[in-house]
Amino acid sequence: WIHASKEGDRINIPVLIVDDEADQASIDGNANKEETDPTKTNNRIRRILDSFPRTAYVGYTATPFANVFIRHDKVNEGLGDDLYPRNFIHSLPEAKGYFGTKLIFQNDLDGYFVCKIVNPKKERQVLAEKGELTKDLVIAIYNFILGMAIRNLRHQISSPMSMMINVDHRVGKMNRVGEAIHTYIKETLPNHKDLQLLSRTCEDFLKRTKLLNEKLGASNRIPDKKDIIKEANRIITSRKITVRVLNSSKEDKLDYAKDPSMKVIAVGGNKLSRGLTLEGLMVTFYLRESKQYDTLLQMGRWFGYRRGYEDLVRIYTSENLWKNFKDLAI
Fold first, then answer.
1. Among positive and negative, which fits the CA dihedral 68, 70, 73, 78?
2. CA dist 44 → 38, 39, 47 (Å)
3. Is the pTM of this model over 0.90?
4. Which mean pLDDT values do the consecutive 10-residue runs of the chain (330 residues) have?
5. 225-238 vs 195-216: helix axis angle to the nearest 10?
6. Can you tell me the distance from the alpha carbon of 326 to that of 315, in angstroms, rounded to the nearest whole number?
């Protein structure tokens, strides 16, 4: 359509291109290879920009590593300049109340937020290969239920509450994990509650919650243990928690507009990795390894706004991933 127009008509048309997630598809992944054509999306954007005399390109992303470190002197005939930031790079200020990498990982608070999974390889094998729940995942689910109970007792019962599980990106394995969790939440747990484990988990959960409340300077109400256990039992018996598996083979969606008080355990892979907001996210069970920092950050969907329940956030992950996030934050 653009190339079919007359050049004289394009002279008077100023063009602004705004590129969301500008580090994802727009970057020329071939920039470091000599005598190689640019990648397709990069090529198309540059062709549009080169077709008009007055253009501006604005890219924004939470993870601008590629945009900053890409070669800025690569020339391709007929495409004009590459998309390297020509005029300025502006870092947006952190909004008030934002719960990000700096808060969680740049000081000693990660010792309270993060729960270490000792053997992540075995964990993935049992969950994704066999479709069986592990003790770590069961305790993480108990943590989610305890967090829900505390929020209910804080009069937040109508708010959305979520748990995220990101173990494997392969559809078949994701579905297997989702089916196992669905059976556990709807059948096994309501009929076979381990009250001793729930009590022990509650003690540890309350200990961390009280310390986080103090360290964060929050003034969130901390109910009595017996009230929390009673409410947790009610949540388990009610079977109100839904399990959604988010991948190309499922029709499951997270529609908070349709169900603003959704209580959900979301199981996924790539759909949980970039741009998605899990409303009311409290507990994350995350074992997806990556050597790329932007991918790690994008998969860390626990960053966001957690006002009124910031002391209830928990992240279950491996020591290696924990270290990577801490290194990145520093």
1. negative
2. 9, 9, 5
3. no
4. 89 93 89 83 92 92 86 80 87 85 84 91 87 93 97 96 88 87 94 91 96 91 96 95 84 83 86 75 88 74 87 93 85
5. 120
6. 13
* 24, 27, 29, 34: CA torsion to nearest 10: 180
Q: Rounded CA gap, 184 and 144, in Å?
A: 14
Residue with tokens 């009673």: 230
Question: Considering only CA atoms, which of 165, 171, 172, 186 is closest in space to residue 123?
Answer: 165
Length, in residues, of the chain: 330
pLDDT at 272: 66
Residue 39 is given by DSSP the state P
Q: Which two tokens stand for residue 133?
A: 């729940």
| Amino acid type, 76 | N
Q: Which of 243, 26, 269, 232 lies closest to 148 in space, CA to CA?
A: 232
Is residue 40 packed enough to be buried (19+ CB in 10 Å), middle (13-18) or exposed (0-12)?
exposed
Round to whole Å and give the CA distance between 162 and 217.
24
Decide: helix, strand or coil at residue 245.
strand
